[in-house]
Amino acid sequence: MKTFAKVTGEDLAFFESILPGRVFSGGNVSSDYEHDEMTIYGLYAPEAVLLAQNTDEISAVLRYCCQKGIAVTPRGAGTGLCGGCVAVRGGIVLSTERMKRVLEVDEKNMTATVEPGVLLMEFPKALEGTGLFYPPDPGEKTATMGGNAMTNAGGMRAVRYGVTRDYVLGMEVVLSSGEILTLGGKNVKTSSGYSLIDLLVGSEGTLGILTKLTVKLIPEPKANISLLIPFDDLDTCIGAVPAVLGCGCEPTAVEFMEREVIACAETYLGKQFPDASADAYLLVRLDGASVEALRPAMDRLTDLALSIGARDVLLADTDERKESIWNARGAFLEAIKNSTTVMDECDVVVPRERIADFVRQSGQIGREAGVRICSFGHAGDGNLHIYVCKDAMEDQAWAKALEQVMDRLYAAARNLGGEVSGEHGIGHAKREFLRESLGETQMALMRGIKSVFDPAGILNPGKVL
After folding, report:
1. pLDDT lower than 50: segments of the chain
2. CA-angle at 353, arms to 348 and 355, nearest 5°
3. 26, CA 20 to 30 Å: which among 271, 328, 361, 457?
4. Cα 105 to chain center, whole Å?
5. Are 335 and 263 in contact (CB under 8 A)?
6. What was the pLDDT predicted at 45?
7. Helix (H, G, I), strand (E, B) or coil at 158
């Protein structure tokens, strides 16, 4: 294991000369920087936290750290779920949270260029009045655009529009040497050598630090409606997904949820869900030019759902109704966390035809281990979010049960042709599961890529590989 240099007073003085008033060490470091959203993966206090405000500052810091052998952990909003932005090997946390400018919205080329710290929930404000739309829609709206790119975040609209990778046209990144690299731009396609952008998207800050991002925009849909479809049991609900996707309705989102998760959201939000009488639900969104233009698809989907076992089809066509449903869906993660003492998560993705098999197996695994498992996810693209809850279980029993459950969940996903992570990334928490899934040849290729981009090995050490 590589050894990194400790941060000294001399180092801090240099950092302060580059980032005056934005260098924190010792007791001045907020405990927030010791973890991401999943504290179960441990607390790791950095030796210093640096708040960068521009590319040149990041370049100077990396050039210095490369020469000194100091580990650098890039960080955005810290909303990750795999321990990807914590300093597991010490050194500094280099935060881009203050780099939050929307640099350009180019309506003619239908692109936007942003700094990495722009929050996902703030970005749409810059597009108001343009008629343009940024489709990626991860559930955590306080995440940053840079963090989304570095984890290739997906979200609820991925079934129709794709994931973050599909919208990244260009980026500015700083390599571990301090060299500033500009990749891509506003061209919508290229066949010019290896796609370095595709290597960097989803790399979790292990290959370079993102300082600018150019993304593709598309025309904003003029209308949308949502259909909440209750089922008597989860098997029937999940089993309906292939038919929903194949009926020609081109849904924007197809989400599944269980009644237990909805109950958690009701308690957490203090608001009633529009319907809580069924065991399981599909939530389908349709986008189009107008409500009238969507009506044939809505009617087709309604007839299909009722013919394959749905109890009803509830239409949400007003802002109030849509918000009551989608706000609850967006709160599921926090609601489950609020319902238990400790939890761990499994973010696997499986072929869509195997979703029902995996959900069925995950429930059985939880029952056999004696732990509560809550699940919801993106049924339209096979990305399932499985949460294992400790509740009142004693620590020793929990540790044993959790290890067994997680091993079995990932093994089940592999057996069904799935992958370790659909959108949350690997961080330091899922590295072993990634190795088991991909095998040594693919891991060796990834290590080779890492060594080319970051020969000093200082960028986000202990993550992914």
Report:
1. none
2. 40
3. 457
4. 24
5. no
6. 97
7. helix
